[in-house]
Amino acid sequence: MIGQSDNTAAYILANHVIGVDKIQTLINSWGLTQTDIVNNKTSNKDMELLFEKIYTGQLTSPSSTQEMLAFFKHTDFEDRIPALLPEETSVYHKIGNEIGVLHDVGIVEQSPLVYFIGILSSDITDDKESAQIAAEISKAVYEYLK
Q1: Topology of domain 43-145, per CATH?
Q2: Per the database record, which ranges form the Beta-lactamase class A catalytic domain (predicted)?
């Protein structure tokens, strides 16, 4: 689900193993008030809150937290947030793709700097150009904060 940004696992968990209502209740308990599992909608603020909770180990055990962060760090899609950042920068992120949609959200870390960045876009007509723009936005934010 994370490395290849494939939502099949999430779909199976939500619809056949755990249940949509239980997952929505859990998400709501974490304070993600703008995330709707049924309609596949969220907000940048909710993604920031979720990534902060993951990054700081608030959702699971230390070993599971490290495993999740490793998945977020080594994805099959490095063409957005991490693309133009210095090689020594760690990026823990998750992309989202649909027709006309291109997203990337995550935590950027290069000690002592640590920050969340979320790039959510819609009405995309050129995926490659949009990924390049996302990479340029990420680089500009990094350079400003550094």
Answers
A1: Beta-lactamase (3.40.710)
A2: 1-110
